[in-house]
Amino acid sequence: MHLIFTSLSATEGFLVALTRPLGRQRQPKTAQGGLVSMRTTTKKDLIDRIADQTGQRRTAVKRCVQCFLNNVISELSAGHRLEFRDFGVFEIRERAPRIAQNPKTLERVPVPAKKTVKFKLGRLMKDALESDNGHLHFSLITTGDDDDDD
């Protein structure tokens, strides 16, 4: 299951395209102990796919994707909340300090408070993940101005 987000241009709008799985395969376990087939998609895989879908040069797509990721990191590190309507919301949460236990020595170890990123699913993401067959099959194409906050 992979979502590919591509900004075509300010005048062409925003395209969300679903594509076939790509990347490396790994075998994580479910809560019941069974194996689940899951693929890992790298940034390079996404860049190649977006470049193919949009006809843009790979270097331009790479710059755009990296710029987007840099801005996400910058906003989150500044303590800001990021909202991508229908996709989801990223927020910074403070984890309280706690006492953990070293499993090898059973020694109690203090763990300091730390910041973490919480992601809350948006409506389209939630609907796609809860689909009956487990496959994501949708496209959202909005044309027009990209001046709003969506």
Helix coverage percent? 25-40%
**Strand order, largest beta sheet:** 1-2-10
Main sheet overview: 3 strands, antiparallel
The averaged pLDDT comes out at 77
How does the helix and strand content classify structurally? alpha+beta
How many helices does DSSP assign? Answer: 3
Tell me the radius of gyration: 19 Å
Would you identify the regions where 5 or more consecutive residues have pLDDT less than 50?
1-23, 140-145
Q: Determine the strand fraction and express it as a percent band.
A: 25-35%
β-strand number? 10
- The shape, in one word, is extended
What's the order of the H and E elements? EEEEHHEEEEEHE
Distance between the termini: 23 Å
Q: What does this molecule look like?
A:
The protein has 150 residues and is an alpha+beta fold. The protein has a domain at 2-78 and 124-142. 26% of the residues lie in helices and 34% in strands. It is built from 3 helices and 10 strands; from the N terminus they run ββββααβββββαβ. It has helices spanning 43-54, 58-77, 123-129, and strands spanning 2-9, 13-19, 24-26, 38-40, 82-84, 88-95, 98-101, 108-111, 114-121, 140-142. α1 (43-54) crosses α2 (58-77). The longest helix is centred in the middle third of the chain and has 20 residues, at 58-77. The chain is extended, with a radius of gyration of 19 Å. It starts with a strand and ends in an 8-residue tail after the last strand.
